[in-house]
Request: fold
Amino acid sequence: MKNITERKFGPQTRAIHGGEPSRHGVNGPIVTEIIRSSTFTFSSTAEMKLWAEGKNKAYIYTRYGNPTLTVAQKKIAALEGAEAAVVTSSGMAAISSSLLAALKNGDEVISTAQLYGGSYRLMRDIFPNMGITVRQVGTDLADLESLANSRTKVLYVETPTNPTLRLVDIHKAVAFAKKHKLISIIDNTFATPVLQNPIALGYDMVVHSATKSLAGHSDIIAGVAVGNSNWMERVRQMVIYLGGSMDPGAAYLLIRGIKTLGVRVERQCENAMAVAKFLESHSRVARVHYPGLKSHPDHALARKQMRGFGGMLAFDLKGGLPAARRFCDRVQLFLLAASLGGVESLVIMPIYSSHYNMSNEELRRAGVSPGTVRVSIGLEDKEDLIEDLKQALR
Ligand SMILES: *Cc1c(COP(=O)(O)O)cnc(C)c1O
Reply:
């Protein structure tokens, strides 16, 4: 399909047909094949010379690019409404390559304090060794102006956040980044391109852990960065240097998963809302963190900037750590596992997973308590999910 990024195609049509080669007027497969080749032949030394001079875009070696990866990239770019995308071996490869494409020794980053644990630890443990200073801001972006100086280069945010589902006002973040000429990068993993498209709102780069909702079946580790062609060329160079390129087999599963993203996310939103309402009414539950609930501090913002409230939620048990452990050990349908965005519903305790080596002060800032349970809602029947929660809370 040509011009799949054109407005007239809806997001689900772009998810299915975007990036795929034209299949009209040919006797060919519908499904994009896995090009399982590490290297590619050249027709002549003349063609190779042109490649070396940067005058053609021939495939040479899969770390530099591969036809299966290209389809995945074009599909995700179409879905996010961006010019280009770079797929990577993991979400962390996309995050580290995007940040390092934008930063050098002496630069500063402003980042939300509430981040995916891996991103948080990368900035806490590795960036200082590289001479990169990280300054943290709350999800309300309250102190932004006082944190910016002439060395600030990047504004990095995540919304909704893991695990308490706090939101960052995307319009506010973009306006600040533009005013201070910062490169804006956003982790859109929790929202998915179905629920929000930050590029359309002015963001420079979007990153995803494609391991999660994009692939959607808990069977690959994958990532992607999305943005304009210039930025994606820089990210691609960083991936080539650091080696975080995607395997073509993973790209095949990613392409396959994305085709059903729209219906999966819709169902997860519906199930999550039902589960959130059930938990909120339960006597053993102290608090439910779900942006779809009126009690959530960012409910109004979620209504404004998201097209649905997502499939992720968290809750705090009144009995604290022992109660959370008992609950997680007793679920029978929900599975006790890390990760999210797949078809199976999962529970996890952030203090034993994403937030494992953090101080009490760090946990407090992240809004995580020892009794917090994070839930990733899958595609099961919501009545069965609620029954399982009932028996585990009993
Ligand atoms: C899982 C996750 C990541 C890291 O992605 P990997 O694919 O595990 O490397 C980054 N950000 C968010 C929000 C995540 O949930």
In short: The longest strand covers residues 152-158. The radius of gyration is 21 Å. The chain has two domains: 4-258, 261-393.
